[in-house]
Amino acid sequence: MSTSAKLLLIGAGGHARSCIDVILNEGRHEIAGLIATQAEIGKKILGHEVISDETGLSDLRKKIPNALIAVGQIKTPQNRIRLFELLSELDFKLPVICSPLAHVSGHATIRKGSIIMHHTLLNAGVIVGQNCIINSKALLEHDTEIGDHCHISTGAIINGGTKIGSQTFVGSGSVIREGLTIGQNCTIPMGAHVRHDLPAGTLFKQVETK
Known about the structure:
The protein is of the alpha/beta class and 210 residues long. The chain has 3 helices and 22 strands. Helix 1 links the parallel strand 1 and strand 2 (30-35). The chain is globular.
């Protein structure tokens, strides 16, 4: 593989393990190493070594042009946003990573730094913003728009024409009705059924029905 295809992973936790699996299946990049804390240097994740903490990124950029944020996002997107801004300032290229087991329409758009995990389905007209996680088996129907720094979790269903604002988390198995507008920085928990628009900053609570 050429030097230009080398890729740093920023993070060394559970999400990094999933990212490694997608990257290896995609086959476009060679994982050059992981970036984590000083205490984790030397640790190996699925055979790939933590080679530095964040303080070494500037020097590593001279040899390795590509990076992917492999830190998860559940409670807050702020760490992923911070890392995205840091990598952008250091002029890293932030490629789109897409599992070959996903179905992505040729009429969909995915912006830099986002990862499309195994068995996801992105239909025609879908737009995915920067630095997003579209996790395993998520379904994004036609003309859905996902803002920057979002996490659409495993098995979530986003129906057609829905617009989801930046920094929003959609939990596993959630279903969002077609045509809705979900504001930025919302949190939708696992298994929720969203049937109406949500203003920015909403912590959605499922209303239990008997």
